[in-house]
């Protein structure tokens, strides 16, 4: 089954590279929450302080990425407290 064609709101085409940036309609943003609270996620090296912490995304416009992250975090921390929350404009 193919992905449905997105609805384009705005489009800007670069005349030199012919690449287009498109603003698409989204039904919401999906974010990973822990115990009902929004989170940040970072990776740090425990032996050296170089190159410093790296922050990872926890909010996505595609629900699949959010559910995969929540599942991975639940497995990693042996819990079921990571859930996906759909954020919409009321």
Report on the structure:
The structure is a single chain. The protein is an alpha+beta fold. Helices cover 17% and strands 37% of the residues. It is built from 1 helix and 8 strands, in the order βββββββαβ. It has one helix at residues 63-77; strands at residues 8-13, 20-24, 29-34, 37-38, 41-43, 54-56, 59-60, 82-87. Strands 3, 4, 7 and 8 form a 4-stranded antiparallel β-sheet that branches. It has a two-stranded antiparallel ribbon with strand order 1-2. A hairpin with a 6-residue loop joins strand 1 and strand 2 (20-24). The longest helix is centred in the C-terminal third of the chain and has 15 residues, at 63-77. The two termini are 31 Å apart. The model has no long low-confidence stretch (mean pLDDT 94).
The SSE string, one letter per element, is EEEEEEEHE
Give the overall silhouette: extended
The fraction of residues in strands falls at 35-45%
Main sheet specs: 4 strands, antiparallel
| pLDDT < 50 stretches | none
Content-based structural category: alpha+beta
Total number of beta strands: 8
Separation, N- and C-terminal Cα atoms: 31 Å
Chain-averaged pLDDT: 94
Q: Give the helix tally.
A: 1
Helical content (DSSP H or I, runs of 4+)? 10-25%
Integer-rounded radius of gyration: 18 Å
